[in-house]
Structures are given as C-alpha cells and as structure tokens.
Specification:
The longest helix has 16 residues. The protein is an alpha/beta fold. The chain is elongated. About 30% of the residues lie in helices and about 25% in strands.
Length: about 350
C-alpha cells in the first residue's frame, strides 16, 4: 500500500481527496498538511510514496514546496491539483517544469467536484507506479520487429518532410519544455502537436513554450492556416484535424467530435486527418505517454503517405507507452532521448 500526503488548505477538498484516495486499496492517506511549511517538514521527517499537492494555497503556492524539494534534491512523486483558471493553469504547468509527475484538473468550485475528478486522480496515481524504472539503454535505430506485433510498412522514400506531426501525453509538457526551445527559428515547415490535456491548460502550455523558444508557438485555433516556422498545439478538450480550405491551403479544424478511446484531443485523429491533405512526406514524432495513441493513426497514414517516425527512447520517457507501442510494431525509424529529438528533427529536415 502506497503512503500518501495530501496538501490542501480547504477542509472540504481535503476531505474529498482523502475519501477518493482511501477508497482505493492500493493507497492510504497517512498525513495531511494545510500549508507549505508543514508539508515540507513532514516530507523531511517521514517517508511518503506520493504527495497530492494543491497548487493554490493561502499565502503561498505549490511551487514553493517544489522549489524546496528541488533545491535539497528530495525525490518524491508529486501530483499537482489545480483548476483550469488561467492563473492556476500557468502555475500548474510551471510545477511540471519543476518536477511534478503530472497534474489533475478539478472544477473551479470544490463543492461540484465530480466522479471524473476522482477517477482521474486515481488513474494518475496508479500510472506513476505502473512503469518500470527507466533504463540507460541508448539506441539510435530500433531493431526490426518480427512476429505478431510487426506491421508491414511500404518502402520509405528519403524525401524531405513537409510537416512535422508530434504526439505526447503523460510527461509531455516536461518533454516539450526540453525539446522545443532547442529548435532553431529557421524551421521551414509547420509543426502540429497533440498533447493530451483538459480544457484550459494548453493555452498556458503554448504561452510558456513561446516564451522559452525561438520558434513561434500557439494554441491552435479553428481556421489557422499552417505556416512554416510555427508550432500549433491542439486545444485541451478538443480534437485537432488538418484539412484544406477552398484555396487548397492546409489549415486547422478544431472540433468537439466524440472522444476516441476516451481521448480528446486524440493523436490518431490528427494523424489520420493528414491523409486527406496535399502533404506527401510527413515526419511523425512520438514522445512520452501512457497507452498507444498515435500508433493506429500512423499506421493508416503510412499506407497513404511517405512517413518517417522518430520516437523518444525509454531512458528519458516519464511513461514509456506511446513510443513503445510504435517500436514494438517496427514502426519507429529512429529513437533518441529527449535531449536529442530536436537535433534529429532538424537533421531530417535537412538542417
């Protein structure tokens, strides 16, 4: 049973979170804290497996605790809890930069916290312990796969990609904070990204990445015409498809079609939409994430287009799920730790 510390200054939210966590036989709340100082002292004096941390507290914020833990090199799994209000969302994305494992969005009014919040919180807590420890295996080209997991791919042509389509999930914001600032300003193709996130958080993610990067980054809007040197991130809670307008220009379609495999945005949806565009050569990049989103879409895309696939290697993934799915099917052409993904993209683009 995993030991949990809950940090929240709201008596109602503490009760709700403790009830949710204790309802799962794998977890038990053994301590609560109402403020950062008390939480910090308890973490130093006791052994916890998880800290569930409210990001906005009276007189302080969750970032203060993460700074102290980082400064003293105290390694513990922290799950941030926040609302999608713009200011709160920004703090939460900073928490991921500073080492929080993941975050859970709750309604702005605690009294209306739904079953979805509880299910999401427990799912993230389970995910944080479901992966084996990262290994230090460095490979630049996956071995060819065979057997029942292998997928037969059309012969790939060594052509310059006309667009980069990237997908990530758990651990994705941290990966993007590392990768995107390393891209040069002169990227001469558009980049489209699906990062699994709820409504309200992708604007903060896009704005922060735009501050850190030389390349332009924005949250995608319906009707955006794709431009070279720009990154478009799918809005949280909505699908992003790439379509062509009446002038045959590639542009963004943002919609609330039903979730696919419980996901919206969904990477499979984005990849499959590229089938119907004028792009012939597509570079697919898949980073850390739980599950296999992106695999089906890349398989379908590869049947119609010339596709090249780069995946993040296990050693740097927070969760080695989405890249692993592609590697197991023999669909990954190259795999690198996150620090080398930008270099690999630039090299493939001819830079």
């Amino acid at each position: 049973m995993k030991k949990v510390l809950v940090v929240n200054d709201s008596a109602l939210m503490r009760r709700i979170e403790c009830d949710i966590i204790n309802s799962d036989p794998d977890f038990q709340v053994i301590d609560v804290s109402l403020n950062i100082d008390d939480a910090y002292d308890k973490i130093k004096q006791n052994k916890y497996d998880i800290v569930v941390l409210e990001m906005v507290l009276r007189g302080a914020d969750g970032l203060d605790l993460l700074r102290r833990l980082k400064d003293e090199q105290i390694h513990i799994t922290v799950i941030a809890v926040s609302t999608p209000i713009r200011e709160d969302a920004g703090e939460t994305l900073r928490a991921l930069e500073m080492g929080a494992y993941d975050f859970v969005a709750r309604p702005a009014r605690p009294i209306s916290v739904s079953d979805d919040f509880g299910k999401h919180l427990l799912r993230v807590m389970h995910n944080s312990f479901s992966e084996k420890p990262r290994t230090a295996v460095k490979r630049e080209r996956p071995a060819e796969q065979s057997g029942e997991n292998a997928v037969t791919r059309p012969e790939r042509k060594n052509e310059k990609p006309e667009i980069v389509a990237l997908a990530c999930s758990t651990g994705g914001p941290q990966a993007l904070y590392t990768m995107i600032p390393m891209l040069p300003k002169e990227i001469d193709v558009p980049i489209v990204i699906v990062q699994h996130m709820p409504t309200g958080f992708t604007e903060a993610l896009s704005n922060r990445l735009n501050e850190l990067s030389r390349i332009n980054v924005k949250e995608a809007e319906d009707g955006d015409i794709l431009q070279p040197g720009w990154i478009y991130i799918a809005p949280g809670g909505k699908h992003m498809e790439i379509i062509e307008n009446q002038n045959k220009q590639a542009c963004v379609s943002v919609n609330k079609k039903p979730p696919v495999n419980s996901l919206r945005p969904c990477a499979d949806v984005m990849y499959e939409s590229l089938i119907h565009t004028h792009y012939k050569n597509i570079l697919c990049v898949v980073l850390t994430g739980m599950g296999a989103d992106g695999t089906k879409g890349i398989i379908e895309l590869g049947r119609q287009k010339n596709v090249y696939v780069i995946t993040e290697s296990q050693e740097s993934c927070v969760v080695y799920g989405m890249p692993k799915s592609l590697e197991q099917k023999g669909l990954s052409d190259e795999t690198f730790p996150i620090e080398k993904i930008s270099e690999a993209i630039v090299k493939k683009l001819g830079g």
